[in-house]
Write a structure and sequence with these properties.
Jelly Rolls, alpha+beta, Fe2OG dioxygenase domain-containing protein, 6-stranded antiparallel beta sheet, about 40% strand
């Protein structure tokens, strides 16, 4: 995508909200990003057929613990442009059977915007911008449980574009 294409995508987005006490809240001092709900864009991506959902299942579970598998429901597309961020938080479950999130990061060059995950005193940093420079044809992904605190560090330049699944 060209920079002009990405600018148009960002302009088409609504301000991103976040869940708090079962409500959707808009507060750009806590989260500044754009979003498109799943009904507002078309996607031709089969995460079951391409093996991604199986890889996520294998990363999160032993087969003995969960032999039935998992499903992922597309939630939204997020666009983090320069100055965008999301302060540390835990996800608000969007359904009774939601146990975590899957985030796909498009391989678009940008600076900043790392996803920091924290749980039980451990911290893991997923830097999709580094992955975009390493292999511009490879979508990176991260999956985590709902009780994992996470934040998106500020984007310095370019766009961090993600698909989020529950």
């Amino acid at each position: 995508a060209t920079e002009a294409d990405l600018d148009k995508l960002a302009a088409a987005c609504d301000p991103a909200t976040f869940g708090m006490n079962q409500l959707d809240v808009l507060d750009e001092s806590y989260r500044k990003a754009g979003k498109l709900d799943k009904t507002d864009f078309a996607l031709n991506l089969d995460i079951v057929g391409n093996g991604l959902l199986q890889a996520v299942h294998s990363a999160l579970f032993d087969w003995e613990d969960n032999p039935r598998g998992i499903k992922a429901e597309l939630y939204k597309l997020n666009v983090y442009g320069p100055g965008s961020f999301f302060k540390a938080h835990k996800d608000t479950p969007r359904g009774d059977d939601m146990f975590g999130s899957l985030v796909l990061n498009f391989p678009i060059k940008h600076e900043g915007g790392a996803l920091v995950l924290r749980h039980d005193g451990r911290e893991v940093i997923h830097d999709a911008s580094a992955a975009a420079y390493t292999d511009p044809n490879q979508v990176s992904w991260v999956a985590f449980y709902s009780d994992v605190e996470h934040e998106v560090l500020p984007v310095q330049s370019g766009y961090r574009i993600t698909l989020t699944y529950n």
